[in-house]
Structure formats: structure tokens, C-alpha cells
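Before relying on records like the one below, remember that each one covers exactly one chain. Contacts with other chains, cofactors or solvent are not represented anywhere in the record.
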Amino acid sequence: MTHLSLDRRDTNSSEGPVVFVVEGSQDEDLVSAPHRHARGQLFISMQGLLSVGVEDGVWIVPAIHAVWLPPHHLHSGRSYGPFHGWNAYVAEEACRDLPSRPCTIRTSGLLREAVLRASTWPPGEWSEQKRRVVDVILDEIRTLPIEPFGLPLPTDTRLQKIAQAIIKDPADDRALERWADWAAIGSRTLSRRFVAETGFNFTAWRQRARLMRSLEMLAEDMPVQAVAFDLGYSSASAFISLFKRTFGATPAAYRRG
């Protein structure tokens, strides 16, 4: 069943609260066409790997990261599979000391709980207690470490078809040549254009897509061994070794944050 918030507050107006939060969930893919608004937006997915389009490309973002979009920045988005998350909209004047470029931040437990609390507030008068929760949200956006966007998507439609299939099933281990046949593109062209459009060769991109999915699975408290085998790794140790080389910590340590 689909459940999306019917909140009608204007994302292009600074009238009303400094921050308001809209919750949404649905069982199918969530697709948001390119748009912009005057309020800043913090987009937090609790379930669902996301792709977020900004001016310099389309990026894969795992659920444990929040996306910050400053006021007036054109953006789009979609989830892969069921979606559950929150949007926190910040009045433009309150964004002056927040990040000035779209970015991802690794969410803290404090930020998640503060946004969750704010999502339960009906429109109306604000108490001093609510103002303190909003101050926490703004302070977390301001001070949490900024991380690079997770993984670029190619722009060629044939490569996008392959990339989106891998995102939906990261364990699919078809060889490059079979993917090329499936997408009706030459294998050499596929190999060359993947590097040109993403900065990664095909194998490295697929491995990183698996790691993006692993971050979401770890956030759901799946055992490390189950994550490894579900994503097609030959062993848990192979997964742990690649994860540590990429993120600088073991999956267990990264999950502890």
C-alpha cells in the first residue's frame, strides 16, 4: 500500500516554521521529476537505495546518508524498490550557514531522531521545546561531515539500462560481454564509455554499486555474512576486505559509526 504525506505547506515560502518535515512511503519505486524550491531540503531515506540528480550528474546514495540540497538547486530523484523516508524543508534565511552546494552527509542517530520527532508535529504554534529540536536539526546539518556523492550513473541510455539492472540486483554476475549483448551495445564501446562517463571501469563500478547496497543492508542490521552472500561475494572475508579498502573500516566498525 502506498502512503504519502498530504502536507500542503509551501516549499517556496519562508512563512511558517523554520523547519517542517514531510514523511512519505510507498511500496513501488518513488520517482521525482526535476524541480527546485526556495527552501533548503534534507532528504533522508530509511529504506531504499536512491539516485539523486543534481547539476553535475546523477548519483547513487545509500540509505544511511542524507542528501542536502540548498535553496533553488535543480534536483530530481528516484528510489530502487520500496521507499520510506523524510524530507525536512528549511527556510531560506536559515540556510545561510549551511552547506552551499548539494552534498551527502552520513546521518547521525541524533539527526534521525530529531527529524522523526519533527515529522509528528501538526501545523500550528511552535513551543520552545520544538524550537530546540529544530536547532538540533540545523546544527547537525551544519556540523556533520560532508561526504562525496556515492556513485555516478552513466548518461548513455544503454549504459543506464545496465546500471539500473545492476542496482536492482547487485548479485547479478553476468560478464561484461553478456551485459553488452543484453543492452545492444558493443563490449568495447561499453567498456570505454563506462570509464568516460563514470570515472570507473565496469568491474569497479559494479563492485562499488554492491558496496552502496551493502551500506543499506548493514543499516538494517543484517549480519555481515548474510550481506556478503546476498550480494554475490564468494566469502564474507572477501567482502570485508573490499569494504575496508574502500571505506577505511570493517563493515562492523562502519555500522557502529
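The two ends are 33 Å apart (CA to CA).
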